[in-house]
Amino acid sequence: MAMNIVVVANFDSMSAEAAKIVYGQIMRKPNSVLGLATGSTPLGVYKLLVEYHNRGMDFSRVTTFNLDEYVGLGPDHPQSYRRYMHEHLFSKVNINPERTFIPNGLAEDLEAECRRYDELIRQAGGIDLQILGIGTNGHIGFNEPGTEFGSTTHVVDLAESTIRDNARFFESIDQVPTRAISMGIKSIMQAKEIILMASGGSKADAIYAAVHGPVTTAVPASVLQLHPSVTLVVDQAAASKL
Ligand code: GLP
């Protein structure tokens, strides 16, 4: 298996390892196209990238594409991924806002929005480095179990377990959107390089299935076994079943 596996002690060292890879990517190619994830997992990476920026790292030529966005949440909604990215990264580095792309969860024609997003990625020359977290059910982006490997950006009905997992960010579970726009499995697999991060024991089963399980749509992250350049950066708790 081609996967490069880095096991580190904890969340902070996972974040440091992943941030180092992103740093190297932008040093090598200042106009890199990054694929970005949200959730708790990449928060430490964004914090470190802000620190790097404060010490001189230049984001002015970087382009970013986020994996996903909730349907129905606009940029000002506290739980929208656009707002998350603004708060944790975009407002704190010198990235050109016009080069930061996130699906529009308020688009009237969601199908057209999906096509537009794929076209934007294509026009940018594809994603150089994609950062991924993993759901406890093995999802990547919002590609829930059962998503076809050939999928491009699409509208997703969120799994029950995902709604439950993400309820912690909302006032109550019925405020969690039930749909999202997500880059598809194929869109993710077209990235030249991928980092999959995971921290904590709640991810141990998903990480085991992704790395050692059969390649199956039942575990979306297992498709990464077929990608030529994946680095798995996991802390000991997430790696405990490997
Ligand atoms: C979310 C996101 C994913 C993320 C995953 C894990 O629902 N759509 O992109 O990787 O679930 O989230 P967390 O990092 O908070 O555990």
Q: What would you say this structure looks like, in words?
A:
The chain has 242 residues and is an alpha/beta fold. The protein has helices spanning 11-28, 43-54, 81-88, 110-123, 160-166, 185-189, 204-212, and strands at 4-8, 33-36, 63-66, 68-70, 100-101, 129-132, 154-157, 179-182, 193-198, 230-235. It has a 7-stranded parallel β-sheet with strand order 1-10-9-6-2-3-5, sandwiched between helices. A 3-stranded antiparallel β-sheet has the order 4-8-7, with helices on one face. Helix 1 (11-28) crosses helix 2. It starts with a strand and ends in a 7-residue tail after the last strand. The mean pLDDT is 97. 2-amino-2-deoxy-6-O-phosphono-alpha-D-glucopyranose binds at residues 37-41, 67-68, 133-135, 141-142, 162, 166. 2-amino-2-deoxy-6-O-phosphono-alpha-D-glucopyranose (GLP) is lined by residues 37-41, 67-68, 133-135, 141-142, 162, 166.
How far apart the termini lie comes to: 14 Å
For the residues shown, what is the average pLDDT? Answer: 97
Q: Enumerate how many helices there are, as a single number.
A: 7
Oligomeric state: single chain
Spatial sequence of strands, sheet with the most strands = 1-10-9-6-2-3-5
Structural class: alpha/beta
Q: H/E element string?
A: EHEHEEHEHEEHEHEHE
Kindly state the percentage of residues in helix: 25-40%
Distinct small molecules bound, one entry per kind: 2-amino-2-deoxy-6-O-phosphono-alpha-D-glucopyranose
- The overall strand count is 10
β content, as a range? Answer: 15-25%
Sequence stretches where pLDDT stays below 50 over 5 or more residues: none
Could you please say which CATH topology applies here? Rossmann fold
Taken together, the total number of domains comes to 1
Radius of gyration: 16 Å
Secondary-structure arrangement, i.e. CATH architecture: 3-Layer(aba) Sandwich
**Class in CATH?**
Alpha Beta
Shape verdict = globular
Q: The biggest beta sheet, please?
A: 7 strands, parallel
